[in-house]
Give the backbone structure.
Amino acid sequence: MLKTMKSEIARIAALLIASAVSSATPAGEKPAADATASNLKSTAVISADAVRPHVEYLASPRLEGRGTARGKKLARDYLCRQFEELQLEPLFGKSGYIQEIPGLVDKQGERTILGRNIGGWIRGSDPKLCDEYVILSAHYDHLGVDKDGRIYTGADDNAGSVAMMLEVARKFSTAGKRPRRSLVFLSCDLEEKLLWGSRWFVAHPPWPIQQVKLFITAEMIGRTLGDLPMKTIFVLGAERGEGLRDKVNEVKLPADLEVAHLGIDIVGTRSDYGPFQSEKVPFLFFSGGEHPDYHTPRDTADRVDYNRVAHVSNLIDSICRSVAQADTPRSGSINRVTSSMKSVRCTASPTCCSRPMTPSKTPPEKTTRDPASRRCSASL
């Protein structure tokens, strides 16, 4: 997660907890989503046993904190294999599941590659709605290995959310019936470096970005704010899209999960929703909040609450189904773009992030490809 000053987090922590108490949605308070969405319901429920293997692999020391070239390649290969097994269509045309993010030309005249986004999709079944897209996203990169050899495995940030994305994709791909709108599963790189992967995707989408009906992303869903004994998952962004709050509140929750809505202005730009917000795309951001192991080597797979990850995964799955099936016209309005988006519009190098980045032991990867060829113009 893109980090802000710890003093700011401490200042708003009390407000977050108070909001959780006042706005939490108890299980069963509202009816299930509309009848159209119910036609696509899957009887299977995402379980803790389903999400755990993904986290344990992605957060294993072998992947070197998903911040080195070798570690990222292992993570990418894993995600691409999962997409292939689920028979998701490649998102980036001839480039397949991979969208390269180019860097500068080096001294040898070769174009460097800063990172790679990964994407697959399920084509919508309704001819009138299939060119509208619901994107479910979770960044796969983390902080890598520091100069002392310590590995930042990033189990909660953000292997848990990647596991959520994969298991939601599995539910859709095995449902036997495609949703009316198209579903996109996107795992961005370089979130930890000024959201560079999502910024590149928004600038070079496979289709006009205005066709995105909803962007959903999640971070740190396997633990709670400050590791406090609370049931809360925070949801941000619902106030910026027409009907989004109702879509969230319609979902029946288990007894040990509660939803607390927060205004995005309270937290600012914390994750990959930032570039989408700047383009007035409706979005939802799910997070449990920071805990003492955030951005430390202690964020390990054995400290993740897998039941919680599964509960949040089922919540997000239900919202995706509801929006993908809805009869309502596309909701493209966001009340306003906050001043925090100025940082997202920054055109400087991703290494200009105000906080120090964990150094990688592996130099940037190289390619001789022209970066102009990375602009995907293929129509889905």
Remarks:
- The chain has one domain: 6-103+114-361.
- The radius of gyration is 19 Å.
- Residues 4-38, 330-380 have pLDDT under 50 and may be disordered.
- Residues 145 and 151 are 5 Å apart (CA to CA).
